[in-house]
Hints:
Mean pLDDT of chain A: 82
Mean pLDDT of chain B: 87
Low-confidence stretches of chain A: 304-311
Largest sheet of chain B: 7 strands, mixed
Distance between the termini of chain A: 60 Å
Number of strands of chain A: 10
Radius of gyration of chain B: 15 Å
Shape of chain A: globular
Oligomer: heterodimer
Largest interface: A-B, 39 and 32 residues
Helix content of chain A: 40-55%
Strand content of chain A: 15-25%
Helix content of chain B: 25-40%
Distance between the termini of chain B: 27 Å
Number of helices of chain B: 4
Order of helices and strands of chain B: HEEHHEEEHEE
Number of helices of chain A: 13
Number of strands of chain B: 7
Amino acid sequence: MSRASDLHRDAIAAADRAIMERLRGHRDASATQYKVAFLAERDAAAEAVKEALGEPTISVLHRSAATLALEAGFPREAERLVAASLAMDPPDDIASELRDLLENIYFRRHLALRGIRLFEGEFQFAMTGPAVGFGIVQSDEYVGRVSNLETLLYRTAERKLNRPYRDRGKRRGQLQDELAIYVTAPRAASFAVTFRVGAQEQLSLSFDKRNLAEDVVDEVLTCLDLLNRGQDEAIRERIQDLAYYTNFVGLAKEIAPDGKNITGVGFTAPAEGIPREVALLRRRKQMPPPVPRQERIERIDQVRPLPSTELDPARDAETITGRLGFADELERHNEIGLAPDGGGPPIRIRIPRGLMSDIVKPLWGSRVSVLVVRRGDVYEYIDHDEAD
Amino acid sequence: MNLNDLRKGTDGITPDFGGTLCEAASVCLEHRSHQSGVSMSISGGIASDPVALTWPPTNDQMRRCYEDLQFATELGAYGVAILVVEELTEHTVIARSVKGTGFDYWLGPKGSTAPLFQDKSRLEVTGILDGDEDYLRRRLQDKMKQLATGGVPLPGYGVVVHFGNPETRIGTSP
């Protein structure tokens, strides 16, 4: 057996241990094993070149070593390994994976704190993509996300405090005085900002003796992490109240990357040992509609009863594009009007709880595509996307 | 088909890691309210009769350990897929490399002596806890697209393991 094989075997054994430590919740021990694995795999990659083992072995070992370097917290080493492999002659599929890894490495660099020390109740929010330059960003990409993130923090605090979902009315005077949110000036490159969430001492003490601010930050990051990894069911189980769930998904989709101007948004929070990093790379179009699948089926079922096996939200729904306008605020506070592009009278769309004030109202006057199912004179909302 | 057989390991999987795959798959199956001995259908490119899937009972410690169900689903799916490939083909997992938060699995003929990743093909696996037929079909299509770009000499396998309604669907490439 070659020396490269021996080193690779050692690296995989250490990576196995890292994964098992991670499963046990031992973050520090996992990081230590990842470092052992990285050093062995880096040497295996160098030996494979020296021994002329050929492709795909050389590029697979480089990719493996770079991935381990990233897990071990050595992004510069990861970058060097990817660059070295791409400079050789990797097979097309491995080359493509190396490029994807390089993008991930660059995004992780944005999430690095770079001398910033975060305290409990704080987290860093960073964005990357073509709309982000060195210390400059398209204002609508930045302002909208920061505003939605602030709303998400307040909504999460209300949920954690077991308050009923607030359909209408300002939060000022209720929660805003109790839970203060501050944002620092943006830092260059990734346009990173620090959010500081502070709770009144009295409120914190009443919250099961735990700090509400830390709990809110932890909850927001956990839910965003689940959403990023496609664990949509786990979020539904975690957020039992349908209005809060709908609101969370609606806001998260506004914060998520669009894949064009913004390709990644990320969060870094203090944690014991290594800071906790959550990279939200799932694009908003890949995310589920705010209305969960079962509720979508029920909405369609009310319209055209079918055997449940034949219900298909994707097939039975339709998309209508037009300009969003006011409905009668007093009479029909859960409805909006949409002036369709092709002309004709405005159509009425019923909005589910959790979306109107935070997600739909800010779009009034905008051109949007709305996924709906018809129910007599009214359409039931399922999802939307900005059309312009 | 006994998940506990994973504890024997293969050329590319240590007995310890095989045990991890076995535990992860068992937790996923019990999470979906299945009991050892449940019938699992095998469909796709190398379809066979349904098999009875058995595993040792899980405990609270295991369930807590695999609380991250997304991660457990990924590991458990590899466990089931490896057993199915070993049982129904001439291939076995010879090597692994690290990719993302997990591993990339490489298959070769049983008893292969080719070094590391030379003359190996890839095993692309995805696991789902719940989902309908359309979702299962799309996930397999995604895996087959990934394999189609590989250009490897041996046939690769794309596998989707469904823990909700136990099924292993296999695609082969080319």
